Amino acid sequence: MGLTNERVAMMVLLQATVVGLLGYCLGVGSAAVFGVLARGTELAFFTPWQLLPITGAAVVLICILSSLWSLWRVLRLEPAIVFR
């Protein structure tokens, strides 16, 4: 609808990155709150600091790769097929 393929790809990748980071932050925050509330019980756990950036990078990478895979299929479609 008037956008180049590169512009559409950048919009989709930005959305995927923002959603991935937002979900990661909500998950880490929830786990931290649970960890504080469970301190001193059998449910207590230890999270090394190295785990946080590694899982954050993995979440963003998975979101970007899945977006690129689905975007690849969309960009190959003819515009007339979409509006049929």
SSE order and pairing:
Elements (H helix, E strand, L loop, with lengths): L4 H33 L13 H25 L3 H4 L2
Summarize the model shown.
With 84 residues, this protein is mainly α.
Features of the shown structure:
74% helix, 84 residues, mainly alpha
Give an account of the 3D structure.
- Helices cover 74% and strands 0% of the residues.
- The protein has helices at 5-37, 51-75, 79-82.
- Helix 1 (5-37) runs antiparallel to helix 2 (51-75).
- The longest helix is centred in the N-terminal third of the chain and has 33 residues, at 5-37.
- The protein starts with a helix and ends with a helix.
In N-to-C order, the SSE pattern is HHH
**Which regions have little confidence, pLDDT < 50, spanning 5+ residues?**
none
Q: What Rg do the Cα atoms give?
A: 19 Å
Shape, per Cα inertia axes: elongated
Could you estimate the helical fraction of the residues in percent?
over 70%
The structure class reads: mainly alpha
How does the major sheet shape up?
none
**DSSP summary: helix tally:** 3
The chain-level mean pLDDT equals 87
Let me know the number of strands: 0
Give the distance, in angstroms, between the N- and C-terminal Cα atoms.
15 Å
Our estimate of the beta-strand percent is under 5%
